Amino acid sequence: MQSQVYLSMPDVTDPSRRAVSRLILTVTASQHLAALEGFRDLVRTVRQDTGAAS
Protein backbone atom coordinates (compact mmCIF):
# COMPACT_ATOMS: atom_id res chain seq x y z
CA MET A 1 0.00 0.00 0.00
CA GLN A 2 1.05 3.56 -0.55
CA SER A 3 0.14 6.88 0.96
CA GLN A 4 1.42 10.00 -0.78
CA VAL A 5 1.48 13.66 0.13
CA TYR A 6 2.42 16.55 -2.14
CA LEU A 7 3.64 19.69 -0.40
CA SER A 8 3.82 22.94 -2.33
CA MET A 9 5.88 25.81 -0.92
CA PRO A 10 6.60 29.27 -2.31
CA ASP A 11 10.15 30.26 -3.21
CA VAL A 12 11.39 32.59 -0.46
CA THR A 13 13.06 34.93 -2.96
CA ASP A 14 10.45 34.74 -5.74
CA PRO A 15 6.90 34.03 -4.51
CA SER A 16 5.70 33.52 -8.10
CA ARG A 17 7.72 30.26 -8.13
CA ARG A 18 6.90 27.14 -6.12
CA ALA A 19 8.65 23.94 -5.14
CA VAL A 20 6.70 20.70 -4.82
CA SER A 21 7.90 17.82 -2.64
CA ARG A 22 6.35 14.37 -2.73
CA LEU A 23 6.53 12.21 0.39
CA ILE A 24 5.63 8.53 0.01
CA LEU A 25 4.93 5.82 2.57
CA THR A 26 5.09 2.29 1.13
CA VAL A 27 4.14 -0.59 3.43
CA THR A 28 2.30 -3.88 3.38
CA ALA A 29 -1.44 -3.79 3.98
CA SER A 30 -0.96 -5.21 7.47
CA GLN A 31 1.54 -2.46 8.37
CA HIS A 32 -0.46 0.45 6.96
CA LEU A 33 -2.54 1.51 9.97
CA ALA A 34 0.42 1.16 12.35
CA ALA A 35 2.74 3.21 10.12
CA LEU A 36 0.25 5.86 9.02
CA GLU A 37 0.34 7.95 12.22
CA GLY A 38 4.15 8.08 12.11
CA PHE A 39 3.99 9.16 8.47
CA ARG A 40 1.54 11.92 9.38
CA ASP A 41 3.88 13.05 12.16
CA LEU A 42 6.76 13.15 9.67
CA VAL A 43 4.74 15.22 7.19
CA ARG A 44 3.96 17.75 9.93
CA THR A 45 7.69 18.33 10.49
CA VAL A 46 8.54 19.24 6.89
CA ARG A 47 9.45 22.91 6.70
CA GLN A 48 10.96 25.21 4.17
CA ASP A 49 14.66 25.98 4.62
CA THR A 50 14.91 29.75 4.50
CA GLY A 51 18.66 29.73 4.97
CA ALA A 52 18.35 31.58 8.27
CA ALA A 53 20.25 30.22 11.26
CA SER A 54 18.02 28.69 13.94
Summarize the structure in words.
The chain is α+β, with helices and mostly antiparallel strands and 54 residues long. It has one domain. Helices cover 31% and strands 33% of the residues. The chain has one helix at residues 29-45, and strands spanning 2-10, 18-26. The protein has a two-stranded antiparallel sheet. A hairpin with a 7-residue loop joins strand 1 (2-10) and strand 2 (18-26). It is elongated and about 45 Å long. The relative contact order is 0.26. The mean pLDDT is 91.
Brief summary:
This protein is α+β, with helices and mostly antiparallel strands and 54 residues long.
Write out key terms for the chains shown.
54 residues, alpha+beta, two-stranded antiparallel ribbon, 1 helix
Counted by DSSP, the helix tally is: 1
> Globular, elongated, flat, extended or rod-shaped: what is the shape?
elongated
**What's the β-strand tally?**
2
Mean pLDDT: 91
User: Radius of gyration in whole Å, from Cα?
Assistant: 14 Å
Helices and strands: which structural class? Answer: alpha+beta
Low-confidence stretches: none
The separation of the N and C termini measures 37 Å
Q: Share of helix among residues? A: 25-40%
Share in β-strands = 25-35%
- Biggest sheet character: 2 strands, antiparallel
Number of domains: 1
Main sheet: which strands, in order across? 1-2
